[in-house]
């Protein structure tokens, strides 16, 4: 289930990048629905040491007063091998292998948001750490609770921090990691106090007891750790962090963990609890608990995302796309809307949307059927062949073969193909025109601007008509070319091919008897059928080249050229946008992007049932 934590990590990063920090606003928030572990504690509770012990690295800023002034979303990723490194969301392509540099960047990024003052901000910093020594886990480190403002801070800072912490932990999807020092009275613990207010039954609170090794002699924390003095739904975990002296001496974190294990294993008071004590156990327990909570919340998150996407899309559809106030912006907006229409139109032709298949039906059914209806065999009846041969001979009968008669018979047959060719051009034109109207109706942006819709429709139809005219010229030229020049090789083979009608013993002077004329008709019909088969393949190519291909490439080119000549007032007449909705639309678009990204991330995760 480790991919569940990774899933929430990705969605949290997307929330931060797109401005969803869980703040109160008029926009729906996804951040609040995501399970998260919020680390809560007073300034002297050892909160930073617990986090560093879980990570196994020194990386958090230290100092007097309020050091953590922005929420830190700490995402831990376990890797199989390799060098440990860290990445910040605001520095996406930079890897930190020096964790002292990580500490400095946290401080610097805090100052970038809050300035050099000691103000706080609710905008989180995202830090991802990749290491073979961590478990998959996400924690939100919140500013430490304090009772007194330090120099340079407003008096309201105490309440501001409490309000920020409360805004996180009061959400039902938040798991509270309450850090309390064992060497102070638990009743005065800042973390327990505020946790009890938002989670009175302790159902979402995980208690961590620090500084157990610093308790007064003769005292211990057994009653707390066993849940007798203050019961929570989940067992308390005790930890022993490095002392300030250890920190100053740069004591290795791995060695500190080993000393922690030895402390609990060798202490008479705690040895019976040693199996569930220490920072390593805490990290594993938190990871497992977070996975369980995420898995239980996923169906609800999916429902929320689906519902919110529909609501955002509906409102954005109602508001329409934003339009700039300057002439250049308006021109760009018109071009962008036209591009969307053009893309939809191409999708119809390419089969992504319906309708383009009708063009193939014209080529595969309508054109062949029209050619078949020409009935060349009737045109080449005995009477018609005799008539055309005689007319072609004129006053001097042909000597060897009626070449002029052949030509007249062939030309008079082939010229009839012009009709089906023109009909195919017109049929494809009608389909292209119908698809243009359909694409216009499917372009949501055009519905917002009726004037632009009319102009685009007219421009598309005019372009299609020009393409139709060019296509007719090109297609009819194919027919005319077949009429103007006959394939000589076809006729050269005829006298030697007795099976195909050639009869070298036949008298050339019996040129008008039925057998001779029938053979001429059969030869011409065979040639016309050959040409017809050729044109059946070449006419669709001509139509696609002149109409379909051009419609995909340059449907609105003429309109774009005219747009460039328009005055600002003319552009404004095509667009009428209310600027009052622009800000709302922009915010909704960002939030919709976030929800769609989250939905895609969830859909790609295959979890165990």
UniProtKB/TrEMBL annotation:
Q: Where's the Dynamin-type G domain?
A: 31-299
Q: Where in the cell is it found?
A: Cytoplasm, Cytoskeleton, Phragmoplast
Q: Which residues form the GED domain?
A: 517-609
Q: Which UniProt keywords apply?
A: Cytoplasm, Cytoskeleton, GTP-binding, Hydrolase, Microtubule, Motor protein, Nucleotide-binding
- What is the protein name stated in its UniProt record? Dynamin-related protein 5A
| A single MF term (Gene Ontology) | GTP binding
Entry similarity comment: Belongs to the TRAFAC class dynamin-like GTPase superfamily. Dynamin/Fzo/YdjA family.
Q: Which SMART domains match?
A: DYNc, GED
What is the species of this protein?
A: Liquidambar formosana (Formosan gum)
Which GO cellular component term is one of those annotated? phragmoplast
């Amino acid at each position: 289930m480790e991919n569940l934590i990774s899933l929430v990590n990705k969605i949290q990063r997307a929330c931060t990048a797109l401005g969803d920090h869980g703040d109160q606003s008029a926009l729906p928030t996804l951040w609040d629905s995501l399970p998260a572990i919020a680390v809560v504690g007073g300034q002297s509770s050892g909160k930073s040491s617990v986090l560093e012990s879980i990570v196994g690295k020194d990386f958090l800023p230290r100092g007097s007063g309020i050091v953590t002034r922005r929420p830190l979303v700490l995402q831990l990723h376990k890797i199989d091998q390799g060098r440990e490194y860290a990445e910040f969301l605001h520095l996406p392509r930079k890897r930190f292998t020096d964790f002292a540099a990580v500490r400095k960047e946290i401080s610097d990024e805090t100052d970038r948001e809050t300035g050099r003052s000691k103000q706080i901000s609710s905008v989180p910093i995202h830090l991802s750490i990749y290491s073979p020594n961590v478990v998959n886990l996400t924690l939100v480190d919140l500013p430490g609770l304090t009772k007194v403002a330090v120099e340079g801070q407003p008096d309201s800072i105490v309440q501001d921090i409490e309000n920020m912490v409360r805004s996180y932990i009061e959400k039902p999807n938040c798991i509270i990691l309450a850090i309390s020092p064992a060497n102070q009275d638990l009743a005065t613990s800042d973390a327990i106090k505020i946790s009890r207010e938002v989670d009175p039954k302790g159902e979402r609170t995980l208690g961590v007891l620090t500084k157990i090794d610093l308790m007064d002699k003769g005292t211990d924390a057994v009653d707390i750790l066993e849940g007798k003095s203050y019961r929570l739904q989940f067992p308390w975990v005790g930890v022993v962090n490095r002392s300030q002296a250890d920190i100053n001496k740069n004591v290795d974190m791995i060695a500190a963990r080993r000393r922690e294990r030895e402390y609990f294993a060798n202490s008479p008071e705690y040895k019976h609890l040693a199996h569930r004590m220490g920072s390593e156990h805490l990290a594993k327990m938190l990871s497992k608990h977070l996975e369980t909570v995420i898995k239980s919340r996923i169906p609800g998150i999916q429902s929320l995302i689906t519902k919110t996407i529909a609501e955002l899309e509906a409102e954005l559809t109602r508001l329409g796309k934003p339009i700039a106030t300057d002439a250049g912006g308006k021109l760009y907006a018109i071009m962008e809307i036209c591009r969307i229409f053009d893309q939809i139109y191409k999708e119809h032709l390419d089969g992504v949307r319906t309708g383009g298949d009708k063009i193939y039906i014209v080529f595969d059914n309508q054109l062949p059927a029209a050619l078949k209806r020409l009935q060349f065999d009737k045109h080449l009846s005995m009477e018609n062949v005799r008539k055309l041969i005689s007319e072609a001979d004129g006053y001097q009968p042909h000597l060897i073969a009626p070449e002029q008669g052949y030509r007249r018979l062939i030309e008079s047959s082939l010229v009839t193909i012009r009709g089906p060719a023109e009909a195919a051009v017109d049929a494809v034109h009608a389909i292209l025109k119908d698809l243009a109207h359909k694409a216009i109706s499917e372009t949501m942006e055009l519905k917002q601007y009726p004037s632009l819709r009319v102009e685009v429709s007219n421009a598309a139809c005019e372009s299609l008509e020009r393409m139709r005219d060019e296509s007719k010229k090109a297609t009819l030229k194919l027919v005319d070319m077949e009429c103007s020049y006959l394939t000589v090789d076809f006729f050269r083979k005829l006298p030697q091919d007795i099976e195909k009608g050639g009869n070298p013993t036949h008298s050339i002077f019996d040129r008008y008897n039925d057998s001779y004329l029938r053979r001429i008709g059969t030869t011409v019909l065979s040639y016309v059928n050959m040409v017809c088969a050729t044109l059946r393949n070449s006419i669709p190519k001509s139509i696609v080249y002149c109409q379909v291909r051009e419609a995909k490439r340059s449907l609105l080119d003429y309109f774009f050229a005219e747009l460039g000549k328009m005055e600002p007032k003319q552009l404004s007449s095509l667009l009428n946008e209310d600027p009052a909705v622009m800000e709302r639309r922009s915010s909704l678009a960002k939030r919709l992007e976030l929800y769609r990204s989250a939905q895609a991330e969830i859909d790609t995760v295959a979890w165990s049932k």
